[in-house]
Amino acid sequence: MMTRFLPYTLILLLTLSLPVLANRFANVEINATPLADNLYMLTGSGGNMAALVTDSEVILIDAQFAELADKINARLVELSAGKALGTLINTHLHADHVNGNSALKPKRIIAHVNVLKRLSADESFPRSGLPGETFETQLSLNFNGQKVRLEYLPPSHTDGDIIVWFEGKNVVHMGDMMFEGRFLFIDLNNGGSVRGYIANVAYVLDQIDDKTIVVPGHGQLTDKAGLQRFHQMMVTTLAIVEQQQAKGLTNEQIVEAGLGAEWANWHWNFITEQRWINTLLQAEPLTL
């Protein structure tokens, strides 16, 4: 295992399959789902995006891949009746959320300060795609009366994750603080934390209501009940692993025992049950 953070290019290779790079995006479509007035969830390939149309510009949450920039911009033009992409907000540093930064050509890019630090350290990342504006805790933006609040969450998925609150619309974009209906990726090499992730999701649950629309970083559009199921999966599977550890089982035995039938359908091609167990095995010791 690497002892320093994974470079941008390696994360990209983890996301893509090299033999099909050339045709990977040929048939990808950018689809838009209305969330509220002038607010949409966009899907394509990579992390779910969100687009807010204002009187003067379009605000986009996350960028997916550079190869999709033309398709993304075309969809934004269609949704906004021709308005230009003004502000791009990155929820964190992973390639399927930032690779399109430069190619989309926004007027400005905003991210947490740790995202800028990590992307700047990777010489392969296009300099024109680096965030030009950063913040540490919270940042409130007002786009002609449409308010967006960016909130940093302590280390969990990475050490630079933010969630995006669309105030007045009861919509939150979780970035990769949620993988809907599936085991999640915690990037321990980029400051991630198992217990931090669980705590952050619990925090968000306390801030929303049953009518809140929750946009996950990956998976289907959901709500508070969906986020609660996701949180319960993490809490329960961590408890299973800790119980096995308390019995004196080795890591290999814990992986072999698995998590049980209840969680079988949370397995997917990137984060298999085995990989999720191995992540849980690296959870920080519980402190009292």
**Whole-Å distance between the termini?**
29 Å
CATH topology: the name is Metallo-beta-lactamase, Chain A
Low-confidence stretches: 1-5, 16-20
Percentage of residues in strands: 15-25%
The CATH superfamily label reads Ribonuclease Z/Hydroxyacylglutathione hydrolase-like
Number of helices: 9
Order of helices and strands: HEEEEHEHHEHEEEEEHEHHH
What Rg, in angstroms, do the CA atoms define?
Answer: 19 Å
By secondary-structure content and strand pairing, the structural class works out as alpha/beta
Number of strands: 12
What spatial form do the alpha-carbon principal axes imply?
A: globular
Tell me the helix content. Answer: 25-40%
The pLDDT mean sits at 92
Biggest sheet statistics: 7 strands, mixed
Largest sheet, order of strands side by side? Answer: 1-2-3-4-5-6-7
CATH structural class? Alpha Beta
Number of structurally distinct domains:
1
CATH architecture: 4-Layer Sandwich
Model description:
The protein starts with 7 loop residues before the first helix and ends in an 8-residue tail after the last helix. With 288 residues, it is an alpha/beta fold. Mean pLDDT is 92; it is low at 1-5 and 16-20. A hairpin with a 2-residue loop joins strand 8 and strand 9. The protein has nine helices and twelve strands. Helix 6 (194-207) runs antiparallel to helix 7 and helix 8 (251-257) packs across helix 9. The strands form two sheets. A seven-stranded mixed sheet has the order 1-2-3-4-5-6-7. A five-stranded mixed sheet has the order 8-9-10-11-12, covered by helices on one side. It has one domain (8-280): Ribonuclease Z/Hydroxyacylglutathione hydrolase-like (Metallo-beta-lactamase, Chain A, 4-Layer Sandwich), CATH 3.60.15.10.
